[in-house]
Amino acid sequence: MRKAATIRPYALPALLAALALSVTACGGAGDASESSRPAAELTLVPADGAKDVKPDGPLTARVDHGTLTALTVTGPDGKPAEGTLADGVFTPKEALAVDTAYKVRATAAAQDGKETASESTFHTLKPSKEQTETVTVLPAGGTTVGVGKPLSLAFDHKVAAGNRAAIERRLKVTTNNGTEGSRGWLTETLTGKDRLDWRPKEYWKPGTQVTLEAPLSGVATGDGRYLTKSYTTSATIGRSQIAKVDIAAHELTLERDGQVLKSIPITAGDPAKTPTWSGKMPLMAKEGKIKMTAASVGLTGYDQWVDKSMRLTVSGTFAHQAEWAESYIGSANRSHGCIGMKTADAKWFYDQAQIGDVFDVTGGKETVSPGNGFAEWNLSWTDWQEKSALH
């Protein structure tokens, strides 16, 4: 089997053409006149006018009575697609865009050196609603976030293991200070969604400008689904804020840019019944006043409105105001797993908090899982890198 080689558009390795001519010479030129030698015949697949062509599929050029010398694929912008050519099969370096017209031009040389050219046009698949994969990208463009906020693409369906590398290759992250980072795949707790996150090796440096580009149109995700859009987002990293929560001491200490800003009393989860997770949990969302029910997290015993709510995990861990618990805040852990604060303290903290600030909790029985929110910070750098399909 001939080894695939990366080619530039409009070119085929000179060695291939030379080999073809050598084989012709060995065949015995004196056996027939040049005029009796048949012209090269080209057959292109997809055929001219083909529709619903898979954007990630190969393109082939079969040659009878000759040798393929060049093959190019161009889209509406007129730019040739890059790819590899081997045994007459052209495989695009990146999936073609969905619902788009493409043109193929191929040339072949007959034994007498005369060239034959062939062209065809085809149209790639326009995915139906059921065939379309959608993505939620975070953080939202133009926002300012905390030092623990990863870049995140959440897919509505499961992404097949064999399709993950192609998605990763389309991801481009740029920063204004050369921040080192890596990609990783996670399955989100409760929702079961697959997520591709990009996080720095260490917490972001305040003031970092970061941009994510993901031209994903045409990339397959598995089970017959395709991505149909290109995604981009950008953000600014704000001040460094780490909320250190000591469950045993019933205390939360907010550090800003490495300096203690304030310590406030808290109550955490009842260690015997509903303990609070340990670990690093970046703030996912500031949800304000929300209705909390025990049933939503598989428990019993409460159904009430809660103010100044800040989500830390997908499974329902919050930091929030807990005016009903003020008698034991600072002295006992009796919550259902959340971090409760007195009314005045909760208002002060809520006003200081920004999405992506890190809650670093110690004293819990178990460490939060990486997919329960943006908790990949609990993995070592080496373990995080191994979450990449390109590792």
Detailed description of the structure:
There is one protein chain. This protein has four helices and 29 strands. It is mainly beta. A hairpin with a 6-residue loop joins strand 26 (303-311) and strand 27 (318-321). Mean pLDDT is 90; it is low at 1-32.
State the name of the first-level CATH class of the largest domain.
Answer: Mainly Beta
Shape: elongated
CATH architecture of the largest domain: Beta Barrel
The CATH topology of the largest domain is: L,D-transpeptidase catalytic domain-like
Number of domains: 3
Helical content class = under 10%
What gyration radius follows from the Cα positions, in whole Å?
A: 29 Å
- List low-pLDDT spans: 1-32
Range of strand content? 35-45%
The computed structural class is: mainly beta
Overall mean pLDDT stands at 90
CATH homologous superfamily placement of the largest domain: L,D-transpeptidase catalytic domain-like
The total strand number stands at 29
Number of helix segments? 4
The strands making up the biggest β-sheet line up spatially as: 1-6-7-4-2
Quick take:
The chain is mainly β and 391 residues long. The chain has helices at 14-26, 164-170, 343-352, 381-385; strands spanning 5-7, 41-45, 50-53, 59-64, 67-74, 83-86, 89-92, 101-109, 115-124, 132-133, 135-138, 143-145, 151-155, 172-175, 181-187, 194-200, 209-215, 220-222, 225-227, 230-237, 241-246, 251-256, 259-265, 279-282, 285-293, 303-311, 318-321, 339-341, 358-362.
